[in-house]
Amino acid sequence: MATEETPGRRKSFLQQLNTSKVLLLMCVPAVVFFVVFNYAPLPGAWIAFTNFNYRDGIFGSPFVGFRNFEFLIKSGQLWTLTRNTILYNLAFIVFGNILQIAIAIMLNEIRSTFFKKISQAAMFLPFFISAVLVGVIAFNLLNYDTGAINALIRETGGDPIKIYSTAGAWPLIIIMVHLWQSTGYGSIVYFAAIMGIDRSLYEAATVDGASAWQRIRYVTLPSLKPTFIILVLFSLGGIMHGNFGLFWNLIGNNASLFSTTDIIETSVYRMVLSQNNFTTSTAVGLYQSLFGFALVMTANWIVRRINKDYALF
Amino acid sequence: MTDQATTSGIVEGVGIGPAKPRAVKLDRSDVVLQTISYIFVTVFAIFCIAPFVLILSASFSTESAIMKSGFGLLPKEFTLDAYEWIFRAPRQIIGSYVVTITMTVCGTAIGLFIISMTGYALNRKDFPFRNHISFFIYFTTLFSAGLAPTFLWIARDLGLRGSYFAVFLQLLMTPWLIILMKNFMRTVPYEIIESGKVDGAGDFRIFAQLCLPMMKPALATIGLFLALGYWNEWYLSSLYLGSTVEFKPLQYHLYNIINTANALRNSVAGSNVSITNLPSNTLKMASAIVAIGPILLLYPFIQKYFVSGITIGAVKG
User: Is the CB of residue A313 less than 8 Å away from at least one CB of chain B?
Assistant: First the structure.
């Protein structure tokens, strides 16, 4: 690196290397891991600017400039994918946080330790299952012939709904499934934050005659504000990245639902795996990474301004 | 929602009358809030559990009952038929179990070793390169090459297509788990490391013999996150294994059962093929139960470690 530096400084760098060589060696496996699986593929993003073919390889394939991006923009695909990805994530952030906070506050009101433990365990359970199983559950509930919801509709004499071909229903379904799977997890974070609130604040509020609602309004919610802001800002940083497993296992290749359900991840996966389309998928991926990177940097900059301790870097 | 709650609280207070002593008013709003809490939490907890009950009861129902009246919360015409179908030719499911258990055990052990070693080094304040290496690891969460270049690199250039190692290696660690371990390591008092140094122990020995025994809760938490990652893995398998291996990891095996059974059902709909013998609906549900069984059984014991992990991880992600 700085080989032309003064000898004294160079020596101290070597000394540093020498005194910490064991600690450095301890980091080697992890560093090698990230070099091989995360850094080494980076130059491959060049595919986005080529007309890639297997024979010529990444850097031998003809250069086409921004044509892959032009196609994505002109076809309107990039806009649809960006809109879906961002809107879903916004809905997840808004509804997710409201529900998590509400449940954390309610758990805090519940006196019975037994009830608290059981209900927490129940709400946390969906977090542990694979996305494939989420797909099985959705099929069990929603399919036309045997789904539990349609079975209920038939029993009560109604007309069953073809949910798997009704695009308009899916934003609601996907949001509900997301809340089902992640609320238990998220409410633990808020519950821990409530546990950390100074108890004397509540005692003072009680002495002053505050009702339960006023205690929530004037003690709990303000105390949760920092946690809330930080969590939301970091979710905003990841707003360009969708939950692939969830969307893929609910929708898969069901093209009749794509208008309301296709996100960047599912589209890229389909392009790579079933169409062998490496150029367009790399272009989408690069756009996602750059846009997402800019958003994280912005979010982190805002966090730093609010509270330096919470900033990630 | 909060506004509504506040209003109703005030309305009730007024209803009791301003002349009443404060304690009564307080009790009233407390009781209302507690009642709402119990009801809402109960309803939401049932909402979280019910789908599991649906799958379980469907797996114990007969196919004809399901075809007639659909899935429900209670088994219809109780039978072990679907499980018998699975275990009539158990080769596939046993193979999948062996693959997944091997990967989970080896991956958790190796991953845990590397993660704790790295977390330890990055937490040592006298390690001059700790900030550089931390950022080097953290940067991978900010920017990635994307699916296609990564896939080409691993499948073609590294030649890992069709190899279990493509799946196994990529799940060994995540930046988040290393950061979490680094945060856990802060709980080890620096005096312990100092005392080890004074006694002439090397950095690795201080880590292995002094720090690790103190880190048991952290190892349990992070080990469980790793194990869950291996157990639930289907995505990398779908990319790198496809149909090239005889025994697919368990969740990917389930993924194929669900989707091929679907394809099967759609392709024979309306025609009289003997595929009707196959209880496809209940079979899917029984396979799902077989694939999550161990998690459901271990859940009561492992849940609390995840809670401590989330709580510590949330302090500084």
Answer: yes
Q: What is the mean pLDDT of chain A?
A: 88
ipTM of the complex: 0.87
Please indicate, yes or no, whether residues A33 and A142 belong to a single structural domain of this protein.
Answer: no
- Considering only CA atoms, which of B30, B201, B218, B233 is closest in space to residue B123? B218
- Domain spanning B87-315, CATH class: mainly alpha
* Average pLDDT for A273-280: 88
Reference B232, options A184, A44, A130; nearest CA is A130
> Nearest-CA distance from B141 to chain A in Å?
9
Q: Which residue of A has its CA nearest to B140?
A: A38
d(C-alpha B41, C-alpha B47), whole Å: 10
Q: How confident is the model at residue A10 (pLDDT cuts 50, 70, 90)?
A: low
Give the closest of B41, B70, B158 to A154, CB-based: B70
Percent of chain A with pLDDT over 70: 96
- Residue ranges, comma separated, of all CATH 1.10.3720.10 domains in chain B are 87-315
Residue A70 maps to a domain: no
* Cα–Cα distance list, B178 to B151, B168, B312 (Å): 24, 18, 13
Q: Kindly state whether residues A291 and A144 are assigned to the same domain.
A: yes
Domains: count for chain A: 2
Give residue B20's pLDDT band: very low, low, confident or very high (50, 70, 90).
Answer: very low
Quick one: A80 and A35 in the same domain? no
Mutate to test the interface with B, among A9, A18, A26 (most CBs of B within 10 A): A26
- How many CB atoms neighbour CB B141 within 10 A? 16
Provide, as residue numbers in chain B, all residues whose Cβ is less than 8 Å from the Cβ of A235: none
> Cβ of B127 and A23 within 8 Å?
yes
* Maximum CA extent, chain A: 89
Which residues in chain A have their CB less than 8 angstroms from residue B70's CB? 145-148, 150-152, 154
Query: Is residue B16 pLDDT above 80, yes or no?
Result: no
DSSP state of A201: H
Residue matched to tokens 């709580």: B311
Q: Are residues A36 and A119 in the same domain?
A: no
Query: Which candidate, B64, B55, B90, places its Cα nearest to that of B286?
Result: B55
| A285 part of a folded domain | yes
Contacts of A113 in chain B (CB under 8 A): none
Tell me, what CATH number does A169's domain have?
A: 1.10.3720.10
Tell whether B29 lies on the interface with A, counting CB pairs under 8 A.
yes
Q: Is A95 on the interface with B (CB under 8 A)?
A: no
pLDDT of residue B228: 92
Position A47 in a domain: no
Indicate whether A306 pLDDT > 60: yes
CB pairs under 8 A between A and B: 314
CA angle A139, A144, A145 (to 5 degrees): 100
Q: How far is B143 from chain A (nearest CA, A)?
A: 6
Query: pLDDT tens across B253-299, in order?
Result: 889 888 875 534 443 343 344 555 677 788 888 889 998 888 888 88
CA A234 to CA B286: how far, in whole Å? Answer: 39
Chain A residues inside the 8 Å CB shell of B120: 26
Looking at the fold, whether A28 and A97 belong to one and the same domain comes out as no
Q: What is the pLDDT of residues B252-264, one digit of tens each?
A: 988 988 887 553 4
B24: exposed, middle or buried (C-beta count within 10 Å: 0-12, 13-18, 19+)?
Answer: exposed
Give the mean model confidence (pLDDT) for residues A28-45.
Answer: 95
| Across B80-104, average pLDDT | 86
Chain A: nearest CA to B248, how far in angstroms?
A: 14
* Domain limits for position A138: 76-310
Instruction: Please check whether residue A61 lies inside any domain of the structure.
Output: no
